[in-house]
Amino acid sequence: MRRTPGVRWVDGDAGLDAAAVAAAFPAPAGAYLHVPFCERICPFCPYNKVPYRPERAATYFAALRREAGAYLDAGAGPFTSLYVGGGTPTLCLDLLEEIVAALPILGERAIEVLPAHATPAGVARLRQAGFDRVSLGVQSFDDRALHHLGRAGSGAENRAALEACRGKFDCLDVDLIFDTGFDDPGVFLADVEECCRAGVDQISTYPLMRFGYTPFGKARHAPRQEHDLLRRAADLAAGYGYGRSSVWGLRRRDSPGFSSITREFYLGLGAGAASFAGPYYLVNHFSPERYAAALAAGRLPIARTARLGRRAGAAYYLFWQAYAGGFHPARARALFPGAGGLVGAASGLARLLGWGERTAGGRVALTGRGLDRFHDLERWVTYRFIEPLWADMMAEHEAPRPPPAPSVE
Ligand SMILES: C[S@@+](CC[C@H](N)C(=O)[O-])C[C@H]1O[C@@H](n2cnc3c(N)ncnc32)[C@H](O)[C@@H]1O
Ligand code: SF4
Question: Is 62 a member of any domain?
Fold first, then answer.
């Protein structure tokens, strides 16, 4: 089995039960819920997903209810926020609505939306299900770029989806992919400008990540071109009142944001979901069948556990807070007592290198230079930590399936 370098993983739940996980969080957590089904698989996509079949989804959601119930019974929640990701969560809105209604959520309710599902009726359905922030997976408005990516849909469909979502949510985020190898950087800048003109709240720009296990393969990045394009995109968007809200995010100045991983702590529910609980990082089974089988057997569906210890926990925390624009050293020290030295070193080094600067309230905010360097760091983290872990976990989809879980409740 391939291992993530520098992190000691234990197979399974390392003896943790739901009460131990719920008690481990140093502060209130957000909830992340994963829906691992897609009708059509995009060749570039590294996320945990399998082909959608209604009966598969019904069994899966019964397991999700069990997992959520186990944590709630053990004292987890209320959650600061909800983020529903995938896969394609909008394939299963009826099932989703039921489980979301059972989760105690204090703040925002965000969901990833496939443009084909963002029709006026689909948008009304999302509002009715209680979602107030959406992220639209546009990738590009250019048909040639979409074709190059092997992405279904069209620029016209993406425009119609954007129009249907405009003004209907507290936050409308649009995902765009760049450095795809499609040889026309002007397309990405035109995509950014189109989002600005439409007045979306946030534009999430992702350089295409090449995971070796995807059919899209392991092509090379063009780091210089990525930096140049990001800078030009940020300059262009600034003219429309957008600032850089994270390493890859551009946000309209008065808008609320859309984010997933940058919650301080999160409890992950579903196949392939991860939890960051302070001293533990937990990863659920990727295979929906293995996930459901574990819950049917009365176990948590945790496939891998990393005991982080204070320093590694603080390092993980600081990394993702910095990715989102900055961190409060005092807050980090309070959350990770015993890691004060590391927090002090991180904020000192950030300022020494010109990556961070102190702002009001003692926050260390990333500078333009820091955001640029973090772009490279993020890519490094993706290939060094995330890809090996996900490649290892994706093997579950190839392994013989466990016996079917008992039928839906
Ligand atoms: C789970 S998908 C979004 C929901 C929905 N399934 C869709 O495709 O619209 C989340 C986002 O990840 C981004 N993404 C997918 N594969 C990527 C890759 N290889 N590199 C960078 N970003 C990627 C896309 O921008 C996509 O919108
Ligand atoms: S990009 Fe979205 S629709 Fe495409 S395979 Fe990934 S999760 Fe599914």
Answer: yes
